[in-house]
Amino acid sequence: MADPRPVGFWLKLVDQLIDKQFSDALEEHGVTRRQWQLLGVLARGPATMLELASALGPFIDTAAGETVMDHIGELVESEWVVDSDGTFSFTERGTTAHARLTEIVDGIRSLSVEGVGAAEYSATLDVLERMARNLGWTDSER
């Protein structure tokens, strides 16, 4: 029997597959995954650029010149989000779009955990968090 693949293989593969599923589904609606993440932050309430940048920091490819402002700017241009003196929040159009996209994203999330029990999922998250902490991650990096 072949040796099992290491955790890094599975982490990268699952991440790539999640990215592809999200990209394909959201692209049909003119939204990127990063924009979806911004909408998720704003669904909790208005946020400043600093708060948005903090929430998306780990996902932004700064080496490629990607910025949070680029993504939020497109949402403002689409009139889904309004910028009121540096605080961003949903417009009525954004609230409606977020609700519609939430249904699509919920479908992807359901597909990804099909056949995985609640206890298994919880244990997986626990193990991954412990591994991250073992490698130096702290809550301050959220």
Q: How is the topology of this model organized?
A:
Elements: H1 7-27, H2 33-43, E1 47-48, H3 49-56, H4 68-77, E2 81-84, E3 87-90, H5 92-112, H6 118-134
Antiparallel strand pairs: 1-3, 2-3
Helix pairs in contact: 1-5, 2-5
Task: Describe the overall structure.
It is a single chain. The chain is mainly α. It has one domain (20-135): Arc Repressor Mutant, subunit A (Orthogonal Bundle). Helix content is 62%, strand content 7%. It has a 3-stranded antiparallel beta sheet with strand order 1-3-2. α1 (7-27) packs across α5 (92-112) and α2 packs across α5 (92-112). The radius of gyration is 17 Å and the shape is globular. It starts with 6 loop residues before the first helix and ends in an 8-residue tail after the last helix. The model has no long low-confidence stretch (mean pLDDT 92).
Attribute tags:
142 residues; Arc Repressor Mutant, subunit A; 6 helices; 3 strands; 62% helix
Quick summary:
The protein is mostly helical and about 140 residues long.
What is the level 1 CATH name?
A: Mainly Alpha
Report the order of strands and helices: HHEHHEEHH
Total E-strand runs: 3
Low-confidence stretches: none
What general form does the structure show? globular
Number of helices: 6
Q: Give the proportion of residues in helices.
A: 55-70%
Radius of gyration: 17 Å
Mean pLDDT metric:
92
Distance between the terminal alpha carbons, to the nearest Å? 40 Å
Q: Give the name of the CATH architecture.
A: Orthogonal Bundle
* Beta-strand content bin: 5-15%
